[in-house]
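Internal tracking record. Fields below are filled automatically when a chain is submitted to the structure queue. Please do not edit lines marked as system-generated. If the sequence contains nonstandard residues, flag them in the REMARKS field before resubmitting.
Queue: standard
Priority: normal
Entity type: single polypeptide chain
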Amino acid sequence: MHMSKKNIAIVMGGYSSEALISLKSGRTVFENLDRTIYEPYAIEVLREEWCCVLENGSKIPVNRADFTLKIDDKVIVFDAVFNTIHGTPGENGLFQAYLELLDIPQTASDFYQAALTFNKRDCISALKPYGIKTATNYYLNQGDFVDEKAIIDRVGLPCFVKANRAGSSFGISKVYKAENLKKAIAVSFKEDDEVIIESFLKGIEVSVGVVTYNGKAMALPVTEIVSENDFFDYDAKYEGKSQEITPARITPEQTKLVQAQAETIFKVLRLKGITRAEFIFHNGTPHFLEVNTTPGLTPASLIPQQAKVAGISLQELFGAMINNVLHNEKTGENRQKSTH
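SYSTEM-GENERATED OUTPUT FOLLOWS
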């Protein structure tokens, strides 16, 4: 029996400083989908426009009322969305909520889970009852009085000052001296009106991908991050100023421990699709930093490196993500009928 190909919208871009990286992630997915099963469409969701970029470079606007395309008088309805937006609106839940209202399944975590994990402070609070260790932290909102002594008494020096809701290490500084604290806070407030200040955790930094594979949460091999810079900042991440070693140079026990923690976080927060959690082995124990629900998928990104070590091809990995949502969500069927 001939199965018709599934129309898959690969959504990339977004409205934040991470849009360029997201476009590369989206392209990687576009190039690695099995063309015998899927008909992929490259959809750029940018502040200026939402459009489908065709192979010849021409652009077709997306109908935002029902997330369809009109190509040569034919309306293209999507069976599923592969979400590769980093930052807003695809990683903080806005796009997921929109798609849920339209009954279109998408591959990343659902809107509430995405919003929760995108907010570092709220995510840490949600995990506390489950015994997940984190750095000591101090919260500031725009307009709050900055009590430098209180901050340093709580988190010590050096410390990290981060935008609470920004990805890819934008709006982050490491502060060694009290007199540099205010400037660092101002840098973070450029990215977000909420800031999180964290104690410095000394130890090996690792990143663990967790994916929904064959219906269950599965941790990928662990990557160790060795930064030439002071910490794993934007340059270290994207300008090649860091060494990423997969599998990490940690003991088998430590590997199992941090993979188990990453899986616990995935299950407790009810995440789905492809995620990546960051930890630091402080005094030998993994301390959780944050979890990304739409991590980078470019060839240089950590998830593709981890999949390779696990012996999973990108075509297999990306196909599994689409399968997860096509089989779990029956909504697509009803939508097809009502549209035609």
